[in-house]
Model the fold of this input.
Amino acid sequence: MDIKSAEEAKRRLSQVGIESAMADMAVKKMPQVFVFDELSSSNQWVVENLQLLSAHEMLCITDSQTCGRGRAGRDWCSPAASNIYMSFTITTDRVPEIASISLVIGLALVKSLSKMGIDGLALKWPNDVLLDSKKLAGVLIEAKNYNGRLVLVVGIGINVDMSAGINLQSELGWADLSAVGLSAADRNDIVARVYSEYEQLISQFLDKGFASLREEWERHDAFMGKSVKVIENNKVLCEGEESGIDDRGCLLIKTDAGVKAVHSGDVSLRIKHEN
Ligand code: BTN
Done:
């Protein structure tokens, strides 16, 4: 490929563009990269195609999704040529602390985007990424058994340019990367940077455990010290002062009855507005 064609390929969402950006980022274990124009959901596609797993993990990116899935059964608005919808596998023989893996992914998002010069990023437990207090990215992890091994399918949605369609389902409101000067043409690069950062953090996580990443996660915690309530199935599970996380990634809430550790699941965290 000549230099001009290589540059053009880098701008479109493309397998060559992503692989070459990953090579630039010195990704150590290259995944198999699959790129599509449209899927129902990149997580769904990976789940349905686990037979393609080899010695290499799978990374699936699609330009649009017709049934994008969010956490807690919500939809994920997925217009074409705008945002990032990516899913990759983590195949493991160990049964890892899945809850803390989800925090590792959030941290990888914040670190990779910060390294692109973006300020104002923060994490909302367990793994929402906020930009100037509005939702920029979300993570959905699904666990599957395949040939006796545990496969985690990590789905990440990042708003890059939401002018084509607004997902109204976040109580926080939405942010996108076009507000900080990036565009849909940067998607290959962003995907590669996120994957590269994830690769470094997951290796630290597997060697040293989540405890080694806890303080770094807390430095980006959007709600630290704030008055919050934790909601599960529309019921308030507990309320009090958000006091960071423990070594397993559980959220710590200082309540009147002492400190409560909340496990990740389909719980949601809200700022408590005093009436
Ligand atoms: C959330 O609700 O915050 C999680 C959103 C996860 C969306 C991503 S987009 C790529 C992958 N495919 C899906 O269907 N969902 C995830």
About this structure: Residues 251 and 262 are 5 Å apart (CA to CA). The longest strand covers residues 134-146.
